[in-house]
Amino acid sequence: MFDFSIVTSWIHQMLTSVMSEGWAVFIECVAIGVCIILMYAVLAIVLIYMERKVCGFFQCRLGPMRVGPWGSIQVICDVLKMLTKEIFNPKGADQFLYNLAPFMVIIASFLTFACLPVNRGMEVLDFNVGVFFLLAASSIGVVGILLAGWGSNNKFSLIGAMRSGAQIISYELSVGLSILTMVVLMGTMQFSEIVESQANGWFIFKGHIPAVIAFIIYLIAGNAECNRGPFDLPEAESELTAGYHTEYSGMHFGFFYLAEYLNLFIVAAVAATIFLGGWMPLHITGLDGFNTVMDYIPGFIWFFAKAFFVVFLLMWIKWTFPRLRIDQILALEWKYLVPISMLNLLLMVLIVVFGLHF
Question: What are the CA-CA distances from residue 316 to residues 55, 166, 172, 222, 230 (Å)?
């Protein structure tokens, strides 16, 4: 398996040979930031196109077909249209909070995106409390949503923001408990170590039934955190016209739109990293020839394949179930998912204490 840190070390040595350490680090940070932004934009375009095609598939339609081959350029046209549309500020709005909200949402998405280990040696933020940092950074997004609803001076936007805040804060408990269940099994919160420890088997297989339960709960709660169907009540068109981003236009609306899809990818990528081995190939104990062949496939291909598989599962959920009421959404979390997650965490602790895991 290729270690990308060899390339980054060579680049750092080359830069420090012609300039000071400080300037080299500055240039590296700028380059990494540009790469994250580019990957962010490309993934958003791919996910929007995938959403439309998957939606068409589940509804027995074709999806986008006219602009470009198989409608592949339709999303690019939509992006250009959004970039050129006018950004207006509604009268009576709190201008500072109104303009700050989209950036809060996008910054939270960027911070969590930077934690994802795409390949060996190819992670931006990798330290011993990586899982804790990811959960903390992802929580910033709800602040941006609440600011958007409050700053817009629109009752429908405020209702959508309050719904979203209640929903996200509630389902963060199940997400945190599911990940904590796996942290008990993993014994570390550093993403690079989490992936490396799955060389002899992915955690969803090594953790027995509690790992499978945690995976299912994580998918449900992660979908709810992204405000996606059937949990998209904060954006209920028939009641709130669009929810917390009703008063936004142009790229301000585009930031909310992009963040929703990238949060979808982040939820899927975290699931792929913690439960499905991340960039680690599929290894089966005793089949050395098979394992050698799997190692020839680059790690980033494994990572994106697993992440997009989970994305497909989340889209499947969205286009299968009808939208829930707010009382049903909160009852599902507080009456069912939280108690099951706590019992599942206790069961995982017992499995680890008695050494019953692989």
Answer: 8, 24, 21, 14, 11
CA–centroid distance for 159 within its chain? 25
Tokens of 260: 């929703």
Give yes or no for residue 108 having a pLDDT over 80.
yes
CA distance 82 to 76: 10
Report the C-alpha gap between 187 and 263 in whole angstroms. 26
Q: Are the C-beta atoms of residues 177 and 109 closer than 8 Å to each other? A: no
Cis omega before residue 234 (within 30°)?
no
CA separation for the pair 142, 298 (Å, rounded): 35
pLDDT tens for 243-284 read: 788 888 888 888 888 888 888 999 999 999 999 988 888 888
Torsion of CA 315, 319, 320, 321, to 10 degrees: 100
Residue range 213-241, pLDDT digits in tens = 999 999 999 999 888 878 887 776 666 67
